[in-house]
Amino acid sequence: MWSKCLIHLRAALNIVQPDVREPIYVTADFTFFGCMVIYSAISIATIVTFNIRLDYKELFVDAFANISHIIVTSLVCNVTEMIKLCYKHYESMLEHAFMKNYADQYTISIIKNVKASYLEVTFATDRLVSVFGLTVALLYLRTIVAVVYCLVVIATGDSTPRLRLYSMLLVHSVLPIVISLCCDSAAKASEDLTDKCFELDVRTYTNGFVESEMESLKELLVTQKPNLTADGFFTTNRPTLLSAVSAAATYFIVFLQFWQAGIQNVN
């Protein structure tokens, strides 16, 4: 599936810019995806139970989990950046064609190329979600669990080293932020492309086919918007970050209430 995502992106780039040479990252499909899910599950279990007392075992598990999520974040951000660049390139192509007032047939060919390339990018987006969607969802879940755990340990005065807690907070907070910002920027580029298409004036062309192709492109942009989600659970954008922070704060407050109530009962 991952290789198909790259194939669709390459096809999209070749349609609108045949001589482009973007870096492509090739990875084993199911092995890579399976490892990401396993590492996420191990990391969540480690943070929740935290019964491993030997430092080297803790570091070993954390290193695998963190490295896997860093790799996932890097791949997702690279692909979403390529998707965003494609959208920006479509916008530039259409704006340039209408500003220069090219011949009707040339403008029609540009619009058709944009449509074909946009469909390839849409297929690539779907492949990206199918490969990494569940892993991203687990990453967000792991982040909430880690943040709540660190806050609870700090609040209860546990003997866990503070440096470890702060590093855990940093690593677990940065990766979801980066993924959300990259996916959000790609979605914003798609919205800008749609707005630009509705702003362009096709009345300068006497050929009715230009207007027909432009209407077809507008319909495509409205109906086939990029669906960057965490395997359908939620959309990876900035509001999701606020929701994750709110969830972590809620769980932390609830725990503190139970903890304080328990102390009062003991006393």
TrEMBL record:
GO BP annotations, alphabetical order: sensory perception of taste; signal transduction
Highest taxon above the source species: Eukaryota
Biological source species: Acanthoscelides obtectus (Bean weevil)
Name of the protein this chain belongs to: Gustatory receptor
InterPro entries for the chain: 7TM_chemorcpt (IPR013604)
Principal subcellular localization: membrane
GO cellular component: axon; dendrite; neuronal cell body; plasma membrane
Swiss-Prot/TrEMBL keywords: Cell membrane, Membrane, Receptor, Transducer, Transmembrane, Transmembrane helix
UniProt topology in membrane: Multi-pass membrane protein
